[in-house]
Amino acid sequence: MEPTLNINDRVLVVKDKFLNLNYQIGDVVVFYNPDYVYEKNTLQEFYDSLQVWNFNSEQLTIDTAFIKRVVGFEGDEIKIKDGDIYNNGTLIEFPNVPVNKTKIDITYIVPSNSIFVLGDNRSNSIDSRIYGSVNVNQIIGRAEYKIYPINEISNIND
């Protein structure tokens, strides 16, 4: 997600478990690995949400949260051509995100109950172009603020 977020940055995430967030194109979302079968109960999820930093060094990578930008919802046709992103034929541009011309052109129809996500560093991002769409049940929530490093506190979805 560079340059929006860097490797050791921390973000404040509004979880959608209890709120209807109505995601929009351009929102930065946090989600579990699309290949991971999520099986935590609500109590465990609540406990995990109270943690500011995860000190569990034994956490499996498959349970790691990913963070990417939403570019499409179910039924949308996503087309990437010459590095430009189109959603149902409309060019999508994000303020404060540099245009990275990628070499791979694709057309993708987002399946039901799914979203299509891309990283901001498109020339070096593993995202829906690689692993496909993300099921809405894998979404943890929307990243709202970068909270660490302290001198870089800012709104992510501006």
**What is the C-level CATH assignment?**
Mainly Beta
CATH superfamily: Umud Fragment, subunit A
Strand content: 25-35%
Envelope shape: globular
Question: What would you call the quaternary organization?
Answer: single chain
Total discrete domains:
1
Number of H- or I-type helical stretches: 2
CATH topology: Umud Fragment, subunit A
Fold and architecture overview:
Helix content is 8%, strand content 35%. By secondary structure, the chain is mainly beta. The strands form two sheets. Strands 1, 2, 3, 8, 9, 10 and 11 form a seven-stranded antiparallel sheet that branches. Strands 6-5-4-7 form a four-stranded antiparallel sheet, with no helix packed on it. Strand 4 and strand 5 form a beta hairpin. The chain is globular, with a radius of gyration of 16 Å. The chain starts with 9 loop residues before the first strand and ends with a strand.
Care to give the gist of this entry?
The protein is mostly beta strands and 158 residues long. The protein has 2 helices and 11 strands, in the order E-E-H-E-E-E-E-E-E-H-E-E-E. Strand 4 and strand 5 form a beta hairpin.
